[in-house]
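Its record is quoted verbatim for completeness.
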Amino acid sequence: MLAISTFPLDPPMLRPTRLIAAGLIAAGLLVAALTPAALTPAAMARWWTDSTGRYRVEADLVELVDDTVRLKKADGSIVSLPLEKLSKADREHARREAATGAIQRYPRDAKAFYQRAVSFGNEEQWDKALADISEALRLDPDYVEAYCERGLIYCRQGKLPEARAEIDEAIRRAPAFARAYFDRAYVHAQTGEVDASIADLGRAIVLDPEYTEAYFNRALARATQGQWPGVIEDLDQTIRLDAEHGEAFRNRGAAYTKTGELEKALADFSRAILLDSASASAFTDRGAVYAKMGRFQDALDDFDMALRLDPKQAETMVRRGALHMKQGRLPQALADANRAVRTAPELPVAYQFRAALHGAMGQAQKAAADRQKLEQLAGQRP
């Protein structure tokens, strides 16, 4: 069965209000631009890696402005590139160095401490993140974004009452701050309060009708309650605001599958693949729709591609095995079933499928052993 993305999503990445230029914060305001005269001595040269891991350069950090990082190579040449092109570790290093430079020059700049807390939080250095965000709030007690960030830090530590209290304080101080409701919706979801989560996402949308991720998250929340028309409506809005939101297309495709609108589902999964041709999940999803439509070779091709992209997708192995079984190719089906069990030995559907397959092949003892394992797994679930 096709699945909507898990709700709640992983905790939101802690978010900077804006990237800070190394060493240039003016009286608590982030600079909008820098001239060459603003270049500051950087940290020791280090190796920087791009997001693909294929390219590296040894250089000093010169500055970080408006999502662009400038690096000085050993020969003195300056390289400028979008921050997103760096590896995650290097992105956080650049942010942290920029913020540290700002703090050294303007030690009462709350935004600089906030920025560095964001970087520490994204690397799960909780104590350092909390120290910096608390200093930001000491310097500026009305810094509502910082209350939200401290709430997210507590949430990612599993301290949900503390997380809720921080975000409630942000809402008390700024009742029209949409992001606070968005963040509180995530905390509600952690405690299983899906209705409260949906309500807070609705408040965020009322305050900011262009809040793309609020629509997307509300769609995922509604999916847990089977509200498929509402799911599709929210994903329509997500796509209206961001026509390249691949996960929105993929999830809307899953919702259309739930409502039996297979042609629409097929179109959405195909669009998701166009946006991200390396998405194994999108190929699996489209393959499942092809199988429902009786287009078995197309389904098989998509399952094959999904497993080439991600050889550890055990559920895709089960889907492909079921297709082989349906078409009478029992040895190929058994190979996929065995591979699924080896890859994910705690996956119930792998044993369920293999038990049915063993039964079809007249291997009653093996089928019984798989059913017994399935019962053991069921007993282990909370």
Notes: The longest helix spans residues 88-105.
